[in-house]
Predict the structure.
Amino acid sequence: MMKSTLLFFLLLISAATMAQKVRVQRLLCNGQANNPIGIDAAKPTFSWQLYADIPHVKQTAYRILVADNPALLARNKGNIWDSRKVVSDESIQILYAGKTLHAATLYYWKVMVWNNGVASDWSEPASWQSGLYKADDWKKAQWIGYEAMPDNDRIVPALHSDYQEKNRRKDVLPLLRKDFTPRKPLARATVFICGLGQFDLHLNGKKVGQHFLDPGWTKYDQQALYVTFDVTDQLQSGQNTLGVMLGNGFFFIPGDRYRKLTGAYGYPQLICRLYLQYRDGSADDIVSDPSWKAAPGPVTFSSIYGGEDYNATLHPSGWDQPGFNDSSWRNAVVVKGTTNLQAQTSALATFDQFSPVTITQPRPGVWLYDMGQNASAIPRLRVKGPVNAVVKLTPAELLTPEGVADQKPVGSPVYFNYTLKGDSVEEWQPQFMYYGFRYIQVEGAVPEGKDNPRHLPVIQQLTEIHTRNEAITSGQFHCSNELFNQTFRLIDWAIRSNMASVFTDCPHREKLGWLEQAHLVGSSIRYIYNIEAQGRKTVQDMILAQTAEGLVPDIAPEYVVFEDGFRDSPEWGSNGIIFPYYLYQWYGDKRVLEESYEMMTRYVAYLEQKSDHHILRHGLGDWYDIGPDFPGESQLTPKGITATAMYYYDLAILAKVAGILGRREDAQRYETQSAMVKAAYNKAFFNDSTKQYGTGSQAANAMSVYMGLVEPENKAAVVDNIIADVRAHNNSLTAGDIGYRYLLRVLDEAGHSDVIYDMNSRADVPGYGLQLAKGATALTESWQAHHNASNNHFMLGHLMEWFYTGLAGIRAAPGSVAFRDMEIRPEVVGDVTSAEASYESPYGLISSKWRKEASDFYLEVQVPGNARATIYLPASYTADATMNGQPLTKGYKDGHYVIDVDAGKYSFTVTTTPPANTSAGSYAGVINR
């Protein structure tokens, strides 16, 4: 009996201990989940998240094992790296410190942690495959193509669209193929490939992977990105065939149709290494060289701006499969190409599919499909008809008064031609071009079920396929105010439509990486998408684009050299300093600061050289603000204010970055320099009698406050002037692309979310509501939703950030990195009675959900493992508050109960009660912070 009792208690203790153990999950290598491949960092980073059924999870130590054999790892042997027990609370961005890693090698790793001194079990094992570190790792693979472009035909940098072409022919969009036979039983097969401008890889008759528009856009004479595919499961015994289709992208921009630019780095080309690893430990490489065969393909026109044509009669059946007779094909030719090949970490893919809401016939022979959503997309066609019949598809985001496609605001003509093979039902979608559209105009075919006296091809189905960067969705938002929900969707569609391999301005007219959007709207985007990988690419693009003089141009990659403020505007170029710092704050990877530091220092030196007594007066200013004229360059705010405020902000950030990197002398120098800029700025622009900056515009005052240029004794008066200006404009905004984010941040941080609500909860003045009232389904370029401007632009999407930081109240604590410390501070404003949001931070899921019912306020919060939060409960001094059912008896300050919590799930209730006739001591204890 005693033994049974003892066993029972031992089991009970064991169960309790197991319940308290933390679980280590969501292992990331270099910021990527799901066992990534092609990681070309010589020292990758490791991150993980902590989960437990108990609160207060705090990591106190960790141990990482890395092995090149899964059997060794299973025996807890790290033959590549054993970190041993490291006393540390860090669980993200842990830098690898083991043996030298080898190219194209599969590594396995796992981690255990100590939670408040209690050891966890080992995590489930994860893996990563290294990429190719240097030129020799390509095993003598060569750049090949169908033909080589003569050097004097290259157009680098590209020229503007008014370039007159002379005797310039279309390029050939080739197919390239290679037959091969593995010599032995395979263990693993990996392809490393770059095809410029874009490529589709096929193996044994099937497309490899689900990517769209590989590889990412770069400055091709300086760098190109390669893509890694695990093709083990697609190989077969005996003969196999690699096939590659090439498109133009930004590598070759032809004429004939609309184009923003005309440029040519060369004709389409590729470099490829197929790494065959056999079960006996030996290996072979199949590499691109002149033994590959090449021929013109069925894509007869490819323009990143103008469209794409496909002739199905030219498709050679079986070209990408073994047994195909390629005797009539020519041998590939060796061409010039960059040796700076870096791994692609952020790809595009296809997502939502939209079917037509209506189908109309605005004129004879013309059909108009309304898909209901303006988005970055491609059409997908299912059609049956006679051989050589041509179906023309014209995409557009707007219509003319007649009801036909209107491309005039963003450039025309842009269209797709599909030539039928004619033997059965045919399906087609563009491979190398996308566009921003809601409508598809059809000529040369008839919708199924409609009269067809001319016996034209019959369209059985036509859909819109949304394309965007495959960045993982990291956040959700919803509230009781339907206009705000619609605004969220409006902004979201513009964001996702402009998340290509760069953050584009629009998905049709330009598709260029205008840089101001990244640092101004990035703080919104990061709440709903994980943009760590795409952000790192943006930084690399800027590093490569920086000129010898230190200028970071307005666009990166800089395919074309624009003039004046369209190349040199501090509000744009400052992205070279602001955005790397923001990425560090959002995701915690210090390497981005180390890699960017030289670019940062060179850019502020450039600005210093451009300044006159520390003042800058060049650039575009508060782009697209609301003034008396059609929007464009700043109308209400002097350019000296926006440019110099950015200059000061750059210096302030750079001083912090220097401190983080241990460069103390640099930090002191930049602090001193920023102080001189601040003094000059206030002398030049501040009116001490009115407490206004410059013209007193919303942008001028808000930027001065946000950047820290206002002296503390004047800050409250300047903020009051901002509010007065909003009220004087009938609770309407006037700030543009540059100023509006800072207007929102200043109001939010000063506790004036009510003003933000008043500005954005209406549809009768320029803003989000007016755009929705005019029928917009994606955020437009202008606050007024002008017809003759882009109707899919995310540059004004700053309100998204407030939905999270203000309404839902999820914000990083001051000085926090990667949301290790956070504040949950929901703002109850206007008619909003409930709001909820979640954000997948580097430490795990953060959520805030509140509702207001009569005199009661309810809040549910989740704080991830190894993180901390300060909760601000809106309440009156006499309110009763509880946390998880227990009364809160202290912590009241300035209209909030303030509670510090560790990881866990919490429920709060606030019940408002009338004041009691008693001393203040009977209510919650007051805190002073």
User: Anything to note?
Assistant: The first strand starts at residue 23 and ends at 29. Confidence is low (pLDDT under 50) at residues 1-19, 917-929. The first helix runs from residue 2 to 20.
